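**User:** My hope is that you can spare some time for a protein that puzzles me. I have put the entry right below:
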Amino acid sequence: MELLRTLHDARVDWDGRSDGEGALLMPRVWRDHYMELELRLAQLRLEQRRLWWHVCQRYRFGVTRVLLLPVTRKQRRIYLPPRTELVAGGPASGERMATVRVYQWLPTVDEGLAREGVEVLTTTMYGGEVGRINLPLDLYRRVLADRAIAA
């Protein structure tokens, strides 16, 4: 899923001056993973368009925004709206509200179909050899940092 979520970042960093006409400073092995993902997404779109739509709407085309959300008193948890996941931020000690960065998707997205689509992608990428699917280290570190902030 993280490869799906970072596909846009990889595309934005695209620069023809890099080795192999790919993303600037991105090793060819990472470009190959994104190219494989794009190939499988195109295949999914042709063969199972409904799954493709739910996967893309859930993991690629959602919106990241900053919200001020209420915090529970005892558990210090943030009340997230439906179809929302925390990206970064959290409650400050003693505060009843928290400013957080969240990722939100459309109410028409079916989580079950999105998961099924991800399953199809992972079983078709590299012939189902999921051990070959990797995320570039800098993007992986960013994901880990965001998760640490969110926790």
In short: The CA atoms of residues 88 and 146 lie 5 Å apart.
